[in-house]
Structure formats: structure tokens, C-alpha cells
Amino acid sequence: MELGTILASGWSSGLNLYATALLIGLAGRFDWAETPDQLQQPWVLAVLFTLFAVEFVVDKVPWLDSTWDAIHLVVRPLGGALLTGMMAAESGSPEVLVAMLGGTFALTAHGAKSSTRALANTSPEPVSNVALSLGEDGLVAAMVALALAYPVVAGVVAVVLAMVCVAVTWVVFRTARRLRARWRDRKASKATTP
Fold this sequence. Notes:
Blueprint: H1 3-29, H2 37-40, H3 42-58, H4 64-91, H5 95-120, H6 127-149, H7 151-192
Helix pairs in contact: 1-3, 1-4, 1-5, 1-6, 1-7, 4-5, 5-7, 6-7
């Protein structure tokens, strides 16, 4: 596997680990690409599909998606590292370095996903959650397809997206801090007003 494919797969893992691994496994199973043999096993594909189906449903439900994201704060980066490490082993790349890069890229995507989802959950309408979730699923499929067809382009796109994700996470975090401080100030002023 080329480095671009590995980086794009790592980044995609941060949005949806199970869809990324499932698509990579299916690509290898149908001989569309050289992928790790472990991901091509029927039982592994079945487990990945089941986990993807669960995430597909949970990811559309406000607040339940944030709970799922909180649990996956550890799962997605570690899964991205494991996935990219397996891919590196197949290509003869340094596994530890590639796994660290894959995990880092997954963490950037996860940070942007979970922070924007938490912000979207404050909206009273449920449409934004569903739209964000479907957009993320589509982006994962597009990134994996791009990674397998055009690895260099996918690598560049993954680097750009990782930088954007860091910026988005930072902006959302600062905005949430400011809103929380305003809320506390209003609560304190109401408490002191007779």
C-alpha cells in the first residue's frame, strides 16, 4: 500500500472506523486492490458490517451520537493506528511510524466530528444530525475509493483535511468555552439580582 492510501485510510477511520475497514476489506476480497488478508476474511467482514450497521443507526440519533463519539475517542485512533499498521506491514513500510501517523490522522478527524456533532446537538431540529452523519459516511466512502484509485491525491487530500479538522476542533472548542462562560456569567448575575 502506498503512503497516500494509508494516510487517507487513517483519516477516514476517525470518521467511521468500521466503514473504512469494511470497504478496505471488501476491496481486497473482490480483488479491486491489494489489502491486508486479515480484513478479507468472511467473519471479519461480517463483524465489520454489523458494527457499521450499529454505528449507522446510532450516529443519526442526537446525543446518543455524542455518547458513541465519547466512547470512540479511544477506539477510532487506536483502530486507525491498527488498520494503517496492518496496511504498512503488507507494503513493507515502517509499521510503528505509519501506525502513529494513521492514529494521529484518525484523531484529527474524530476531534472535528465529535466537536461539530456536540454543537449540532444543541439545535432543536433532528435534520442536522442525519445530514452530518450521511455526509460523513459519503466522505468516508469517497476517501477510501480515492485512496485505492489515486493514492498520491488521497494522501494530499488527507493532509489538508487533517489540518482543517484541527482548525475546526480548535474553533468549536473555543466557541464552546466562550458560550459556557457567558452562560455562567448570566446565571451568576441572575442569582445576585433580587
